[in-house]
Structures are given as C-alpha cells and as structure tokens.
Automatic annotation (TrEMBL), chain A:
InterPro entries referenced in this protein's UniProt entry, alphabetically: AtuA_N
Record organism: Methylobacterium crusticola
UniProt protein name: Acyclic terpene utilisation N-terminal domain-containing protein
Ranges where the Acyclic terpene utilisation N-terminal domain occurs: 4-441
Automatic annotation (TrEMBL), chain B:
Species of provenance: Methylobacterium crusticola
Protein name: AtuA-like ferredoxin-fold domain-containing protein
Domain of life: Bacteria
Region ranges (Disordered): 100-120
Residue span, AtuA-like ferredoxin-fold domain: 1-99
Pfam families xref list: AtuA_ferredoxin
C-alpha cells in the first residue's frame, strides 16, 4: 500500500530549528510541515503588518527557510507551513528571495490567502462564542479576524506543483491532511478518511510533544536526550493508518504514553473534534507499539463538516503591569507577604486603578492558590504583583511600586523586575464557510 | 495513594477552557480511574480555580479519561494575569489527588480483600 511520510518541523513559532534540518536530512520524508501560529500570534502579526506592510509573517521564517530549503530541494521534500501568519504574500516573496540567494532556481513558492475576514466580520452581525455578546459592540478594539481555513487551498497549491506552501490561519491538522488528500486523492466528503488524516495531523502538529517533549517527570516518566529531541515523522497509508516515529539516534522517545498524551492535548469531546473539513471522531482510536520508537494509531472516524468556520478575532483588551522581587532565608515567606501587602496599599494610596489585581508568592501559592499548596516553609520566595489597567501609564506604576520595595519594603528584597504591556486578547466567532475566499498565488524563484 | 502512582496526565488550553487527560500507565487500572476520578472530585480538587462546569469524557480503548474544565484559565490564556496563563501545571496538580489503595473490583466479582489482608 502507498504511504506518505510527513515530518513536523516546528510545534510553535519559536521552536528549535535543528530538528527540522535533521528531518530533512535523515527523516526520509516526503513533506516537512511547520506549525507556527498560536491563537494570538496572528493578531500580533496583524499589528506588525499595520506598522509595516512588508511585515506580519513569522520572525523565524527566513532562518527556517535558509536551514531547510536546500536539503528539501535536494531530496524532493515539499514544505507546508502557516508561517505566513498575517502576510502570506510577503512571506512567499521572502522565501523566494532566500531560494534565489541559495541558487535554487525554479523553486515554486505558493501563498494561500483569504483567511483574513476582518472587513466581513466588522460589517456583519456576529455573536462572540465566549460571551454571547455582539461583535459589533467591540467596535474599534478589533484588530484582526482570521478564519481557520481547511486543507482545500493547500491541496490546490500542491496540485499546481508548489514546492513550498505558505498559509496564514488554517486548522493546524489541515497542514498535514492536505498532503494526504493530494497524494491519495481522498474525496473531500470521504469523512472517515478525512477523520483519519486529521488524527495524523493532530498527533504531529505539536512536533516534539509526541516524541517525548512536555512529558518527562524524573523517576516516573524518564526521557533521554531532551536537549537534542527528535521531531516526529508520521507515516500514513492510503487507508489512513498512521504510524508515529522519529529519526533513529535522535533524543526523546515515541511510546504509547507519549502518543496518548498528545492525542488528548487540547481536545474537548474526543468524539467531536471540529475542523474546517470534517468533524473528526477520536473516541475509538486504538494504539499499539509497532517497533522501537514507533506507535501505530487506528480507529479514527469522521462526520460531515459543519459548514461553519471558526474565526479568531483579536481585540485590544487592556494593559498589564507586573513586578517581582525575591526574599530568602528565615522568615522569607512573611517578608514576601508583607511586601505584597505594602504594594497593595501603595496602589490604593497613589490611586492606581486596577480592574483586576493578583498578588502571588512564587514558590508558595502562585500557581494553584493557597489550598493546594503544602504548608512547608520554602527557603526562598518571589513576590509577584500583576494588575490589569486601562492605560499603559497606570500599568507602569504597578511595577514601580514593587521596585520601590528595595528601599521602602521588608528586609533583604532582591532581584526586582518589572514590566508593562498592552494585552491583545482573542475571542471566537463562527461564520458560514463561504465567507472566506481562499486564493493561491504561486511565485517562482 | 496518589493518582500519580497509576496515571500520567497532560494539560491543554483553548481560550478560558482547560482540558486535562488522565491516562493509566497500565490499561488494567482504567476501571479504578473511572471509579475514583469523577468529574465531581476534579471539580472539588480545583475549587477556587475552576469557575465553570467540569465534563468527563471516557476513552476505555486507550485507558484514558479526558476532563474539560470551563472557566479555568483566569479569563483566558491571552489575557490572564496568572503566572502560568496556559494552566500547564494543572495536570501535575490533578495527579496529587488521593485515591484508595485497594483496587476496585468489577460489579458481581468477589468482595475486595479485608483491610490488612494479603496483597493480591
């Protein structure tokens, strides 16, 4: 039976680059896929594009392309990525320039656009999924609206001979489903096939998270070689059976446990995993070891797509000011708590209006609150104050009040640090699929 | 015993919702997980952190449970004031859950051994 071998070259925008090169050189892969676009990343990228029309794509695009274009060309590996973010066209031009620089004449680079539905979302009557409120009420706070596209436009680009396909927002698993649809000629209403391809994509999309990353727990779940973690290779056959493995000799591990954790990562109802092309059903998936560092997954199914696309809407939300300072030795916790109370009082005294304020002792109760924290006295603590404000100027004053603890607060405070930042939030809207009009543009080096 | 003796776990995030998987190291322990790690217990364990509903999904073929916790991420990953805005550490907190040492036997099977009896 025919198979397609896909490598996952990145699981997020800032991911390591050498594992992708390792896949290109030693993974014996047909496709190298980079998933680099988190929920909020595209909103921030849209802001960058507003400041500079040539910007708005992944900051590591050029470094990644410089690292993998040549070995991929040499071995006939095609690249699929959402590194286009808010500007796939500019990302494709940049990639073509890198290809020319490397002497890769004739390399075809496709840009998939059409996920940007900002105008339609601003003009229409839509409901925010999280709050039930009207999108219209968000007014000028809206900075971006991008629909999760399906595999269709990527399949078109591959059919037109693209060596590199660069998209903006698409469903993450669709980056992997598209090469399978292209290679096997799966019909876009063969729901079970699309469900199986979505399973493969979901297992692969976070790269190192299926090969032993985000997994190690010394003594319970030991993983060797995390500093040189190998990224995954997914081998999918025409029937949609997927096997996950990695380059022999690379760090990490592919086991039933690593694969099961990734199967449920960011999944809600496993019987209804909503994607633009299909509603995938992972509820009856079975996994078995198929060799060393090799796991086979079967039993995924699919139901017809909903006809709706999820749109991520980026909004100017608020500002967050933050400050931290450390205390050590006997009485560290008491001095840390005193520090927090002083800052709370100072913010009130000096009239800093916070919509929300959080006072944490890192090392004691910062992550899960006082109730789950053990009653032991740690050697050192770090007091942390974070508050939400309506202006950057007010946010700055929160960190300032923590910093002044140096000369005004409890004994022995050290390592003060402060920050203030604008917060771009993301909400979701569901729109009819035909609101987005995907386009494919091909550039040749 | 702690849940960490029988199961491993991973947290994922979407908006203000967290999902936490609980996966038996040995699939034979799945019935114990299903019996003791209920949505109600998870909700109680995270009282003060989770403000919404807790839903449990069962995956016996994998020996796994999946918990979906609404209102668990301080208003949402993109705007939370929390140090761990993604709630990545919630999986470790859940593995701290106490569960009975005695294995649960399926309905209709022999009664569990008396406390202090021989290990089976």
């Amino acid at each position: 039976m025919r198979t397609v071998r896909m490598g996952a070259g990145a699981g997020y925008a800032g991911d390591r680059i050498e594992p992708a090169v390792e896949l290109a050189e030693k993974g014996e892969i047909d496709y190298l896929v980079f998933e680099c676009l988190a929920e909020r990343t595209i909103a921030l990228a849209q802001q960058a594009r507003l400041r500079d029309p040539g910007a708005g794509y992944d900051p590591l695009l050029e470094a990644r392309m410089r690292a993998v274009l040549e070995p991929c060309r040499r071995r006939g590996i095609r690249i699929v990525t959402n590194m286009g973010a808010a500007n796939p066209g500019a990302a494709a031009e940049r990639t073509r320039a890198v290809a020319r620089d490397l002497g890769l004449a004739g390399l075809k680079v496709a840009a998939v656009t059409g996920d940007d539905v900002l105008d339609a979302v601003k003009a229409g009557e839509w409901r925010v999924e999280e709050t039930g409120g009207a999108v219209r009420d968000l007014g000028n706070r809206i900075i971006s609206a991008n629909a999760y596209l399906g595999a269709g436009p990527i399949v078109r680009a591959l059919a037109e001979g693209a060596d590199v396909v660069i998209t903006g927002r698409v469903g993450d698993p669709a980056l992997f489903l598209a090469p399978l649809v292209h290679a096997f000629g799966w019909a876009m209403d063969d729901w079970d096939a699309l469900g199986r391809g979505t399973l493969a994509g979901h297992l692969l999309e976070c790269a190192g998270q299926v090969t032993g990353g985000y997994f190690a727990d010394p003594g319970r779940k030991d993983v060797a070689g995390l500093a040189r973690l190998g990224f995954p290779v997914g081998i999918v056959d025409e029937a949609g059976t997927v096997e996950i493995t990695k380059v022999p000799g690379s760090g990490g591990a592919v086991t039933l446990a690593t694969c099961k954790e990734q199967l449920l990562y960011e999944v809600h109802d496993p019987a209804r995993y909503f994607q633009p092309d299909v509603v995938a059903d992972f509820s009856a998936v079975r996994m078995e070891e198929a060799g060393p560092d090799r796991v086979r997954a079967t039993g995924a199914r699919g139901a017809p797509a909903t006809g709706l696309l999820k749109v991520s809407v980026g909004i100017i939300d608020s500002y967050i000011g933050e400050g931290q300072i450390s205390y050590a030795g006997p009485g560290a916790v008491a001095r840390g708590r005193l520090a927090l109370e002083i800052v709370r009082e100072r913010l009130a005294l000096t009239g800093v209006a916070t919509r929300e304020l959080r006072l944490d002792l890192i090392g004691v109760d910062a992550l899960h609150g006082e109730r789950l924290a053990a009653g032991r006295e740690p050697y050192e603590v770090r007091a942390r104050v974070a508050g939400r404000t309506d202006s950057l100027a007010e946010a700055v004053r929160i960190g300032n009040e923590v910093e002044t603890l140096y000369t005004n607060g409890p004994a022995g405070g050290g390592g003060a640090w402060k920050s203030a930042r604008e917060v771009v939030g993301v909400v979701s809207v569901l729109v009819p699929a035909d609101l987005a009009r995907p386009r494919v543009t091909i550039l040749e080096a | 015993m702690k849940l960490s003796a029988l199961a491993h776990s991973r947290t994922g995030d979407k908006g203000n919702t967290s999902n936490i998987s609980v996966i038996a190291y040995d699939p034979a322990d799945y019935p114990r997980l299903a019996a003791h790690v209920t949505a109600e217990r998870v909700r109680a364990h995270f009282a003060g952190i989770v403000t919404g509903a807790v839903t449990r999904y069962e995956l016996p073929a994998l020996g796994a449970l999946n918990f979906v916790l609404g209102g668990a991420l301080g208003g949402g990953v993109t705007r939370s004031l929390a140090l761990d805005a993604h709630g990545k550490g919630l999986s470790s907190a859940l593995l701290d859950l106490e569960i009975p040492d005695d294995p649960v036997l399926p309905q209709g099977d022999a009664r569990p051994p008396a406390p202090g009896g021989p290990a089976t």
